[in-house]
Amino acid sequence: MFRRAFILRIAKQLLLLTFLLLGACSPQTGNSTNQLVKTEVKKVVVAKPVVEEDLWRYITNRSTLKAPSQKQLYWHIDWFKKHPDYLTRITKRANPYLYLVVQEVEKAGLPLEIALLPIVESAYYPFSYSHGTASGLWQFIPSTGKLYGLKDSWWYDGRRDVLASTKAAVKYLKNLNKLFKGDWLLAIAAYNSGPGRVQRAIRDNKKQGKPTDFWHLKLPNETKGYVPRLLAVTELIKHPEKYSQTITPVKNSPVLESIQLSTQFDLALISDWSAVELEDLYSLNPGLKRWATPTEGVYTLLLPSKNMKYFKQSMLDNPNRARLRWVRYQVKQGDSLSVIAKKYTTTINQISSVNQLRNNLIKAGDYLIVPVAQKGSKAYSSSESEREKNRLNSNKPGHKVIHSVQKGDSLWLIARKYQVSINNIIKWNHIKRSEPLKLGKKLVLWQSSLSTYKDLSSVTKLGIDIDRKVSYRVKRGDNLSTIAAKFGVSVVQIKQWNGLDNKPLQPGQRLTIMVNVINSKMK
Fold first, then answer.
1. Which end of the chain has less neighbouring CB within 10 Å, N or C?
2. Hey, which CATH number is domain 55-149+159-243, 1.20.950.20, 1.10.530.10, 3.40.1160.10, 1.10.1270.20?
3. Is 384 known to be catalytic?
4. Is the pTM of this model over 0.70?
């Protein structure tokens, strides 16, 4: 009993002490005694930022690049108003790529309008190819593409690869912005015409005491219109109803996923494992030229998010299945590695590598392992070879001519023979100005009309000179091949015109070049 009473007494004292402590902590009013006061805690609601569901809105609502006034944009906006279907088609075409492009642009801290630049460059068409040998969404020329790590091989062209070219373009634009001290309009202008030209224009204006912003520089007409066109596109997409434009919405969510492939894959197998049509595979991965992924290095494949899980599961289910099909080929009399490679649409290097050949010498009776496509060539309808066949069989307004390249041919000679421009030959056939023409290669040419050809023939009969002599000063690093490619003539012709032997050219040396006035854009 005593123990129980003791425990109760201690409990009462502790309870009293607790009340005293609480009273001491409570707020006091006037001379009133300490009281327990209830404290009401209010929840602070943080408003979530509104993220637009349409990716076009997301871009334009965060646009920062401006023109001094709408006057600078008037001509471009007016052009789009006269062609209301143009932006509709482009915004629809951009659907698979836009989210990926925006992610890369935003991640690098560039103005979001940069994601609209492929509209100006290529109409968001990754297979786009210009007469200046620029290719892909971002229209990289070979030299700049190589500088920014875009590989070009028999199997693959990084300039057309959507992810790789976007990363390269973002890096290039970031470097240009740094070069022009944070001026994005100058950086964008330099992306079009080259940084050297913009720097020269700035120096000229400084000497004359003129402003050095984009709007006051003396630049080529194409560049003068390039920046305003981008700003006009931004304005049109931001306010489509104001300018009678219809913009195809793009969901602000991922469309594509990437996976890295460390071995070469037949595209037909990827198609089977992912449930993506072969033609769609080429559209999502336009850097692929042939029937398989590249042989060297790791290749990043893009697939729709919903299909990626099928592909990954198929890889897990088939760990030992060959990614390519191979044949055992017995070398015949007269065979060479180039002949065999052409027969099976592969490369000499790949055959050499697989068979561990020390050189290109093979003899009749030997056996080689050669990779072959799982399906016929027509199944890979968007491969480079099939697209070339489509170009040769295409129909356009005018008279079509198929020219087979012969010994001594040059772009200049072919252009003169058929009275077409060199730039058009390059564009029609997706060839590089700097590379020599291969004997036997078929070129498709489109003459505007037969009558035009006859008229020009009659002009030459009258003795009117349609060739112009151009004086060219040799620059450091020049050689006859690069100069010939620049003017679309042959090395032999330059030697003949200038009485040259095989001595190397000297910087400052003057050369005479004959340029066709009708076909040339030179002034």
1. C
2. 1.10.530.10
3. no
4. no
